[in-house]
Automatic annotation (TrEMBL):
Enzyme Commission code(s) on record: 3.1.-.-
Segments crossing the lipid bilayer: none
Top-level taxonomy: Bacteria, Bacillati, Bacillota, Bacilli, Bacillales
UniProt short sequence motif DEAH box, positions renumbered to this chain: 461-464
Name of this chain's protein: 3'-5' exonuclease DinG
GO molecular function per UniProt: 3'-5' exonuclease activity; ATP binding; DNA binding; DNA helicase activity; DNA-directed DNA polymerase activity; hydrolase activity, acting on acid anhydrides, in phosphorus-containing anhydrides
């Protein structure tokens, strides 16, 4: 008999029927034989008021349901509709449990049939989606979803989504379906029944082998086209403007000449041909990416040498590979190959995944992640984790699957030819353009067996991050959760983790004599206890030193008297860890030197222990440096959040001038390095940027190509004249005053506003001040560190709501691209000076003082000016954007350095205005 599906969606007055919430709209869509055959929907009178929030969300008001039936009047219709069907919903637990409560309340039997959750199904079958909200999936699949948050529209869209997901399931090979079926019993809805039906259908049609997939050792993979060798075709670089224009207009028929972009191309070509370094600032709208890619490709083809392009953000990496490179391929008179290369940990280890599939004890998160990866293997060409959308539990599970640390040939051998990282390396050798990130680039340059040419040609985009990336790469972190995770994976002799398995192997191979397990257990327990004590003490001290809410960064110096007890514990931990590492290494060596061959499972255990040993050694070196032998040239600090006391403590060290060392040792050896960004110039000079990298005395080509945008016609800048001076008030007092101006600006701009802060403390205080007034209840407020979610998720959510306000700190000052009307008003709450007591700032200022220079002029002001320029750059992303910049820090007009900030951005109209005048100006400007 054909399965009947009823796809249900409810709109309700709240989340809890037990607390009196009621249904205000029900919709059901019936599917039989993969066709929509019936629909039923009705408004329902809830017997209570519908809140303003629910009305805003759903469009359903008290007036809408005024004459609607009570649930009792339609309960029989609903019960009959779902009887004998598979109950389907997008987040089925919510809809079904809510409906069950209402049916039982009205005297009907609960629903006992099968359920199917389209969220769960979408996560499995669309493992690379940006998100799993219904509107996101509907948009991706081009499904009709005209009225989100109305039950009839949501149910219909969910039904269409189910039909699409069933098609995807039917297109998977049988071997993948069988693996999915085995894992599906760990899920929350009856996905297993759907998969079972698909397998039966495919077997009935004898569709066992799928020609579009390769199969190996029980796994199915997307068939990859063989990468072609680098072509010898070459073409002379078009120096003439008309030649370049003819090329570019092939890809962009409406292309307008941007002289800055064309000059940038020539400068980069000249730098490579003459083996010179260059620094280029390319303003927004110049077309920077194409500006460096085109000359890079011509040079690589002509000289048969790869050009490496390194970026700071994953977003730009993806943009280059998915947008810019394809455009170039359409316009160039020859073919070229561009590849993405990341660190080994970004790639899936097929050997580890094969082993994980054999494990029986799956919890929900690991089962779901395995299912996502099985489907992903039929789609991916790279095996790169960043393609996947994993839950936090899935991310943790990935750490066991990433392609690193397989040291024994017996484990690597079966998968050597298919290994994703090995394939990425081979492809990179043949490529003309290698796209990577600053982190991988620097770690690769520091290894003996480097993949990136030591004496080659390099383009560093987002180069203003180079110093930060270098310091991070050369630094180290000591994190409570990371160390506890290692200890938990190792376990003690009776915990059936890796140490238990190691001891069992010793016994089975007759090598246990003289090995005292109890003594090693005692040392591990002592270390674990002392480590807990250390982080408990550190969090207590941090709490005393920081009474503010939110994350806090505190300078950590072992000689300043605040951390005396921590030093004593640290010394004991170093000694204990030394003894533990020695004992584990000896046990490992005994097994590896033993004449009897070890099986594959045993080798996997030993390999895991070897990886943990490396992590324990890193921990010991970190403890030694932090608590016993700190270096003068390094900065030490403690990051603390009181939301999770000892779990929220991380110790970090980085060099004060790491980028200078890296340049002298590695970058300086390259034949040509081109550094580019939209923000490198301070006070019309590259001096600050050059000093950061220790290049002030180097002969380097420099150029600045300003943005072609007509900012005077696009931007109005407003500075309130009725706000007190920020320096004369506490954080709470200023936040309250700022909140009033933000509310006025938000109402005038109708949302579509981003508010940038320099500290979490002020963000939190201002956000809560605004929330407490209730004036902006009709707006959706997203706040970094409060609303939850990653930066990218916050941005996506912000763009999905019409009346939205986004509150952000450091990472939102740059690298955020929100074109068009989604962002019409930008508020900068205070000028972006780093707090003087922030450890990195304090250390850099001391560094300049020792050189006899003014730290404010040499470091604090230039850094703030660059950050200010980056913040301003968020507002106008295309030539047709229009917006208002509101600066709540009156120092921009009153302080001696105020003119420096005003000159740092393009020429625009500046106005000082009262709160009411400001609101009028905003409304008039962005209408």
């Amino acid at each position: 008999m054909t399965q009947r599906y009823v796809v249900v969606d409810l709109e309700t007055t709240g989340n809890s029927p037990k607390k009196g919430d009621r249904i205000i709209q029900f919709a059901g869509v019936v599917i039989e034989n993969d066709q929509i055959v019936d629909e039923y929907s009705t408004y329902i009178h809830p017997g209570q008021e519908i809140s303003l929030f629910i009305e805003e969300l759903t469009g359903i008001s008290n007036e809408t349901v005024k004459h609607a039936p009570d649930f009792e009047d339609v309960a029989n219709n609903i019960a009959q509709l779902i009887d004998g069907a598979c109950f389907v919903a997008h987040n089925v637990l919510f809809d079904l449990s809510f409906l069950q409560e209402e049916l039982v309340r009205c005297g009907f039997e609960p629903f006992y049939g099968s359920t199917l959750d389209t969220v769960e199904l979408a996560k499995i079958l669309k493992p690379t989606s940006d998100g799993y909200k219904l509107h996101q999936l509907a948009k991706e699949e081009n499904l009709d979803h005209s009225r989100p948050h109305q039950a009839d529209s949501d149910a219909y869209a969910t039904a269409l989504l189910l039909l699409e997901l069933k098609k995807k399931l039917m297109n998977l090979p049988v071997m993948t379906l069988k693996q999915l079926y085995r894992l599906s019993y760990s899920l929350q809805s009856e996905v297993s029944e759907l998969i079972d039906a698909c397998i039966a259908s495919k077997l009935a049609k004898a569709e066992v082998h799928s020609p579009e997939f390769n199969a190996y050792r029980g796994l199915a993979f997307k068939k990859n086209e063989e990468e072609s060798e680098r072509s010898d075709t070459e073409s002379d670089y078009p120096l003439d403007v008309s030649e370049k224009m003819a090329l570019l207009q092939r890809a962009f028929p409406a292309f307008e000449a941007r002289s800055g972009q064309l000059e940038m191309m020539n400068m980069i070509h000249h730098s490579f041909e003459t083996n010179q370094d260059a620094i280029i600032e390319a303003g927004t709208g110049i077309g920077k990416s194409l500006g460096y890619l085109l000359p890079a490709v011509y040079f690589a083809k002509k000289h048969k040498k790869p050009v490496v392009v390194s970026t700071y953000t994953l977003q730009l990496q993806d943009q280059l590979l998915q947008n810019e490179v394809p455009k170039l391929k359409t316009i160039l008179p020859f073919s070229f190959q561009a590849v993405l290369l990341k660190g080994r940990g970004n790639y899936l280890s097929l050997a580890k995944f094969e082993r994980a599939l054999r494990e029986k004890e799956d919890n929900y998160e690991t089962a779901l992640t395995k299912m996502q990866i099985l489907v992903w293997l039929t789609e991916t060409e790279t095996g790169d984790k960043d393609e996947l959308n994993l839950s936090s539990g899935g991310q943790l599970f990935w750490n066991r699957l990433q392609s690193d640390g397989l040291t024994y040939n017996g484990l690597k051998q079966p998968w050597q030819t298919l290994d994703f990282f090995e394939r990425a390396k081979k492809t990179a050798v043949k490529a003309d353009i290698i796209i990577t990130n600053h982190s991988f680039l620097m770690s690769d340059l520091l290894t003996e067996d480097a993949l990136i040419p030591k004496k080659g040609y390099l383009i560093l985009d987002e180069a203003h991050h180079l110093e930060q990336a270098a310091s991070k790469q050369l630094g180290r972190r000591l994190n409570y959760i990371a160390v506890k995770t290692v200890l938990n994976r190792l376990g003690t002799s009776d915990q059936k983790q890796l140490l238990y398995k190691l001891n069992k192997l010793l016994v089975n191979n007759g090598l246990a004599e003289g090995r005292n397990s109890q003594e090693l257990d005692r040392k591990l327990n002592d270390f674990s206890y002392e480590f807990e004590q250390l982080f408990h003490y550190l969090s207590n001290q941090a709490e005393k030193l920081s009474r503010s809410m939110g994350p806090k960064r505190i300078s950590f110096k072992v000689d300043d008297g605040k951390w005396g007890k921590a030093i004593l514990i640290g010394e004991r931990l170093v000694d204990l860890l030394g003894l533990i590492i020695t004992e584990l290494s000896q046990r490992l060596a005994l097994l590896l030197d033993h004449e009897s061959p070890l099986g594959k499972n045993s080798l996997f255990y030993l390999n895991d222990i070897e990886v943990l040993l490396g992590q324990l050694q890193d921990t010991r070196e970190s403890l030694h440096e932090f608590f016993m032998k700190p270096h003068e040239e390094n900065i030490y600090w403690l990051d603390y959040t009181n939301a999770a006391p000892q779990h929220g403590v991380t110790l970090t060290v980085q060099p004060i001038a790491g980028s200078k060392w890296l340049w002298d040792s590695y970058f300086g050896r390259q034949k040509s390095v081109v550094m580019t960004s939209a923000t490198l110039v301070v006070k019309n000079s590259f001096q600050y940027f050059k000093e950061q990298l220790g290049l002030e005395n180097q002969s380097i080509l420099t150029a600045s190509f300003p943005s072609p945008f007509r900012y005077k016609e696009l931007v109005k800048v407003l500075v309130p004249n009725d706000l007190p001076d920020i320096n004369g008030l506490s954080v709470e007092e200023f936040s309250e005053a700022a909140a009033n101006h933000i509310i006025a600006a938000a109402q005038a701009a109708k949302g579509r506003m981003m508010v940038l802060f320099t500290s979490h403390e002020m963000l939190r205080a201002t956000y809560h001040s605004i929330k407490d007034t209730g004036v902006l209840d009709e707006f959706t407020l997203f706040a970094q560190g409060i609303s939850g979610g990653s930066r990218m998720r916050l941005l996506r959510n912000f763009q999905n709501f019409e009346k939205a306000i986004l509150f952000g700190t450091t990472s939102l000052w740059e690298g955020v691209d929100i074109p068009g009307e989604d962002l019409s008003c930008l508020v900068i709450v205070r000028l972006p000076f780093s707090p003087p007591d922030e450890p990195v700032t304090a250390a850099k200022c001391q560094y300049f003082e020792k050189q006899g220079r003014n730290p404010f002029a040499a470091y604090s002001l230039p850094e703030a000016l660059l950050r200010f320029r980056q913040g301003f750059g968020r507002l106008i992303r295309t030539p047709t954007d229009k917006g208002v910049l509101v600066i709540l820090d009156r120092r921009i007009v009153t302080a001696k350095y105020g003119p420096e900030f005003r000159k740092a951005i393009p020429a625009v109209d500046w106005h000082q205005a009262s709160i009411s005048e400001m609101a009028e100006m905003i409304e008039d400007w962005i209408e």
